[in-house]
Design goal:
The protein is globular, with a radius of gyration of 20 Å. The longest helix has 17 residues. The protein has a 7-stranded parallel beta sheet, sandwiched between helices. It is 33% helix and 18% strand. Strand 11, helix 10 and strand 12 form a beta-alpha-beta unit. It contains 13 helices and 13 strands. The protein is of the alpha/beta class and 364 residues long.
């Protein structure tokens, strides 16, 4: 089985799309003939990391618009592609070459039905990873790992009638280390002593620095703090200086043992992206600040069911009110919060089994 994955990372879009595709690729690699990433050379890309994982990357040229990203257009996902859809489809077709892959896996908010129809003649099956439910897809399988009250009906009008929909956190693409760490979790008591901070690999809004300033106040300075940032975080120098200056802060950059670091925490402070499901898998309650509008509804639903506390969108949060809300939670822990049953960390293996059965059925 040959698989091609089309996913990008950049300072603007973060690292989550590539990282979850890497998780799926590493789960599949022993059972397939080849896995090839097709990824554009955006500023802040993770193409070298993919290579370091032992996987092939075909790199598409860097777009001229990379340096023109605007905070005002953060939710205009078509801007994330850097080129128009037709050009990207043409580039991807050339990268695929003459041998039809069994599966084309797509994880990109800028791409939808129009792009997929262009690629359809050059691939056998199309597998889409999405979170938004805001555009149509031409695909055989669609995965949305998010938890919504209406998650079972969100894509009814957006995918072909015969599309297989894999919906909910049971399909969350978490690295195997999370399921493994989950096995040895010890019960947490109500006392908060250690805090985990992570706002994604790139954290373009620099919420990491704001959180460190909030945690440095006298009321919170007793806490042990583990901070994780990605290698492409544009604020790395500032954060490194802050971490050295604040007692009890440990800074970790582009780590390979995220689950081990997280499992020590009594509380997490972070964004509303992929790490949400990692925190839930390890039964770490979290205070969440959303960075993009597409995160708000899912985080609100999780908040309503007491899986986490939604502090608000980043535009409404500052150092003072963040510190107050952290202190309020630490000194008034809600015993009714619940985490344990929503995410078990086995999503990648479930998808691997589905793809294997799919191929076997086609071969009968």
């Amino acid at each position: 089985m040959k698989i091609v994955i089309r996913a990008d990372a950049s300072i603007k879009m973060g690292s989550g799309h590539v990282m979850r595709c890497l998780t799926l690729a590493e789960s599949l690699r022993e059972k397939v003939a080849s896995i090839i990433f097709i990824s554009r050379k955006h500023e802040g890309n993770l193409n070298q990391l993919i290579i370091e994982k032992g996987l092939e990357v075909i790199e598409l040229k860097q777009p001229k618009t990379d340096n023109n990203y605007s905070n005002k257009n953060e939710d205009i996902y078509k801007d994330w592609l850097g080129v128009n859809v037709e050009e990207d489809a043409e580039d991807t077709i050339k990268a695929i070459g003459d041998v039809k892959p069994d599966w084309l896996i797509i994880d990109h908010y800028s791409l939808g039905e129009k792009w997929e129809k262009e690629l359809r003649p050059y691939v056998n099956n199309i597998f889409v990873i999405d979170d938004l439910a805001n555009r149509k897809h031409d695909c055989n399988i669609l995965v949305d790992q998010n938890w919504f009250e209406n998650m079972n009906t969100r894509y009814d009008e957006l995918v072909p009638i015969d599309c297989t929909k894999l919906l909910g956190p049971k399909f969350a693409l978490l690295r195997p280390e999370f399921a493994e760490a989950r096995k040895s979790l010890t019960p947490r008591n109500e006392t908060i002593k250690r805090v985990f901070v992570f706002f994604g690999g790139s954290d373009p809004k620099n919420l990491t620095a704001m959180t460190l300033r909030a945690l440095s106040t006298p009321k919170l300075a007793h806490l042990q703090v583990d901070v994780v940032i990605g290698a492409n975080n544009p604020h790395q120098e500032e954060i490194s200086k802050m971490a050295k200056a604040i007692e009890n802060v440990n800074l970790h950059i582009q780590v390979n043992n995220m689950a081990t670091i997280m499992a020590k925490a009594d509380l997490a402070i972070g964004g509303g992206g992929v790490n949400t499901w990692e925190r839930l898998c390890l039964n770490i309650f979290s205070l969440v600040i959303t960075i993009a509008n597409n995160q708000i509804n899912v985080i609100k639903d999780l908040n309503n069911y007491k899986y986490l506390i939604f502090l608000g969108n980043y535009k409404k949060i500052n150092q003072i009110n963040l510190g107050a809300q952290i202190g309020n939670y630490i000194y008034n822990v809600d015993k009714n919060n619940k985490n344990t049953m929503l995410v078990d960390g086995l999503g990648a293996s479930r998808i691997e089994n589905i793809l294997s059965r799919w191929e076997n059925n086609l071969g009968e």
